[in-house]
Amino acid sequence: MTDRLIRLMRIITLVQAKPGILARELAERCGSSERTIYRDMDALSAMHIPITHMGHGKGYVFIGNFALYPLDLSDEESAAFSRMRGIMKEIKPMLPPEFESAYEKIMAAEYKQKKEREERIEIVSREAGLLRGERGGQAAEPPPFVADLLGATLKQVCIQADYSENAREEKDLQIDPYHLVSLENRYHLIGYCHRRRDFRAFHVDGFSIVRPLDRGFAKKSFDLQNWTNREWGLDQDSLLIDFKVRFSPRMMDWIKDEEMPVKPSKVDRLNRCLHFKVAIAQEASFVRWVMKFEGEAEIAEPGYYRDMLKNQLTKWLMLYK
Length: 321
Description:
The longest helix has about 35 residues, at about 100-135. About 15% of the residues are buried. Strand 3 (about 155-165) and strand 4 (about 170-185) form a beta hairpin. The protein is an alpha+beta fold. The protein is built from eleven helices and eleven strands. Mean pLDDT is about 75; it is low at about 125-140. It starts with a helix and ends with a helix. Helix 1 packs across helix 3 and helix 6 (about 100-135) packs antiparallel against helix 11 (about 305-320). The strands form three sheets. The protein has a five-stranded antiparallel sheet with strand order 6-5-4-3-7. A four-stranded antiparallel sheet has the order 9-10-8-11. A two-stranded antiparallel sheet has the order 1-2.
């Protein structure tokens, strides 16, 4: 059993280090057969480790943002490891000469990671407080599931949901979420419904359960403008998202020379903000563009994009805890 656990951890590390690695190479690196690797992949799937096979000759990759952190001590493990310092002199004669320096490096890395976690939590908390201040001290309550649905949409992850509309309840729907649309202060998810085998719109407040699944989906050819025009009679301007992005002072001076995916509709230099009108079909690439600035840019509006990013940060913090 111990050998297999070691091999499973080795597989996770190898897939993370080399996305697209083949079963043949995994078998060579783990000192096992390809048949054993296939059985191990079934075991990892049962453990909800999101590894998927991309097809013949394309190998294995992680779905979404899953990652194995190189040093992931729990609070109890860290405390137990720290207590070794008190008995180091007693056990030193029994240890290899290099152990003490290795121990110090591990403790230094754990301390650094702990400080980084605390700093990230402080940043998230400060940004949340700033947002409340901008809204007159009152934290707006986001509609249920908006952040989860937006995250699944941008990462192209399938969802399973319970949904009701006009007193009709539907259980365990499997949906490929394509777009989240805000119209007249009401949110709609447009996606491919596997039960109906067609695209349909869902009122977000009609969802009672939303659960992201451990598999992604490839978007089919779908013309959002034609679909909304046919179903709702909406013109193109109705499907633009108003983004407000705040930049650091340094970045605000530099951004004027940056090639932007969308031309700003308004420049507010006093508050270091740029306003953009972004087509829904471009939302994912636009959010990725903002995220590349890391801590020197933040999405101030719409609020549900902030909520989605804060949820993602919280999940990362839990992963690295």
